[in-house]
Every structure is written in structure tokens, then in C-alpha cells.
Amino acid sequence: MTTIKNVAVIGGAGNLGPSVVKALLEAGFKVTVLSRASSASTFPSTVRTHKTDYGSSESLAEAFKGQDAVVSVITTAAASEQQKIVDAAVKAGVKRFIPSEYGVNTQHMEGGIAKILNGKKATMDLLKKHAAENATFSWTGLSNSMFFDWGLKVGSLGFSLREKTAIIFDSGNEPFNGTNVGTIGLAIASILQHPAKTANRYLNIASFTTTQNTLLKILEEETGEEWTVTHLKTDDSFKSAEEKLAKGDYSAFGDYLKPHLYGDGKGHANVPLANEELGLPKEDLRETIKMALAQ
Ligand SMILES: NC(=O)c1ccc[n+]([C@@H]2O[C@H](COP(=O)([O-])OP(=O)(O)OC[C@H]3O[C@@H](n4cnc5c(N)ncnc54)[C@H](OP(=O)(O)O)[C@@H]3O)[C@@H](O)[C@H]2O)c1
């Protein structure tokens, strides 16, 4: 039976990376973080670090020597670069590759979102090809919809904790999924602790399935204030996304996400979740919101 001990993490100092590194270390894996020669990233003293040129197969072969698994947390814009990385990992005898997905489920995309996330999809296709040709190699894909606690902090969910303002799209009642970044780290550690049952599977997780109106209600209760609410239509976001993408502006992604997540009747939150299978903790929505407000 495959056991995974040595894990290389690519992009371990970004928005998600530190939660992944922390969870892997706490689960007892021997972690090496790869980063670019040009990077100024810093890492905990408990991890080994390795400067790597992702464009050089020699550099990648050296980086992957003795690694059982690779977890890519590379930035979205570099998603296509993962293809060289995957080829080098397979060549070096890596047993499991977890690609940088961690958002929209790339196995069920269409239109502009599919175009923008093409690099992620191509990486997934390549992983499937390698696994079909090589019985000792496998992959796991992980979709977590929105980063939830991070999204509250940076405003990507449409709520500004500082200004106490909210943008509510459509009715505000469409359920959407979000996952706290620490939970994504736990899911990755669990996948690598259970390599057999997670091999060659694309899993969905979520800390919460909620609605914009539920969030607004809790935020108003917890701050004791009425928030300033702007109502927008996801049809208008979609139009804006199409216009931007036609000009090659990939910031269209944020506009495409609004109809994807919040469009009435879209039903994208209705996916089978692997939380229980991965042993993820049950989380409390109000507690997460209270923690975000306290920061
Ligand atoms: N669902 C959501 O709400 C959500 C939100 C944000 C991100 N995501 C997804 O989560 C994943 C990680 O995103 P993130 O925001 O954590 O990434 P990030 O912070 O933007 O970047 C992660 C790391 O990628 C490396 N990197 C940056 N530019 C690079 C380049 N040109 N070539 C190679 N490496 C580069 C850097 O590592 P070094 O400097 O150490 O080399 C950086 O620390 C992505 O797949 C992204 O799409 C999802």
C-alpha cells in the first residue's frame, strides 16, 4: 500500500500556502517548500526550503528527488506552468500530485470561467493522462468554492467589514459554498494520509453552505448596526465580464464569479461534499464571522 511521507509544496507562502504547510507539518509529514529563485517568500524554520526554476527540468528533477507527493498552491496566473511541473514529478517517481485548484470545480465549467481557468483544466487533463499510463502515479483534485474567512477579510464575498457595506446580488437567497483556508489545509493533509481512497478523485469540500442574506443578518447582529446595502443584478456582472474578457482582461473572473455563486437558481452549491470522508471538523458560521470581525 502507498504511504506518503515526504511532501513538496509549491507556493507555500501565498494566501493559501501557509495553511497547507501548517496542516501538513501538524499531520507529521516531512515538508519541503519549493519557491522561485526570485522569491522573497519566508517559511517556518521547521520546513526545508528549496529554490527551484520551474522552467528547468533539471531543477525540477532535483527538487522532486525523494518526494512522495507534490502539493501545488501556485498562484492562479501560473496555473499553466504546472504542466511542466507535473511531467517532472511523474518522471521523478512522485506518487501523488494535488494541483492548484482550490476554487471553482474545474471539472464542471463553461463559458468565460472555463476560458480563464483553462490552465487549471489542462493540468487536470494531464494528470489524468499520466495516471492512466502509470499505475504508481495518482492525483487528487480539490474544489472548495470561495475562500470563506479570507474572503470576508479581503472583501471578495461582497462584504466590507471595515465600511459595514454589503453588495447583495439578485435575491441574496441563492446558497453558495465557502471554505475557511485552515480547513483546506486540513483536507489536503487528510488526502495524503488516506492515499488509497483519495486516488484519482476530484473532491468538493465546504466549511459552510450559506446565502448572502444569512451573512448580512449575522454581520448586522454581531456589529449591532444596520449595514449599507447595495443591490446588484448578476446579469449585469455577467455582461461586464463578457466585455472585459473580449478585451483580454482576465479581471473578468471576479465578475463571472457573481452569477456563478449568487445567481438565483444556479444551484452550484448543490454538490456532494467529502468533508465527512476526510474527517474535517464541523465549523460554526457565526463563530467564523465573529473571528473575522475581531481581526
Ligand atoms: N477560492 C478562492 O476564493 C480562492 C482565492 C484565492 C486563490 N484561490 C486559488 O488558490 C490557489 C493559490 O492561490 P493563492 O492566492 O494562495 O496564490 P498567491 O498567494 O497569489 O501565490 C502563491 C505562490 O505562488 C508563487 N508564484 C507567484 N507568482 C508565480 C509565478 N509567476 N510563477 C510561479 N510561481 C509563482 C509564489 O511563491 P514563491 O514566491 O514562494 O515562489 C506565491 O507565494 C490558486 O489555485 C488560486 O486560484 C482560490
From TrEMBL:
Keyword flag Cell wall biogenesis/degradation: no
Matching Pfam families: NmrA
Highest taxon in the source lineage: Eukaryota
InterPro entries the UniProt entry points to: NAD(P)-bd_dom_sf, NmrA-like, NmrA/Isoflavone_reductase-like, PCBER-like
NmrA-like domain boundaries: 5-239
Entry keyword annotation includes Isomerase: no
Protein name: Bifunctional pinoresinol-lariciresinol reductase 2
Keywords in alphabetical order: NADP, Oxidoreductase
One function term, GO molecular function aspect: oxidoreductase activity
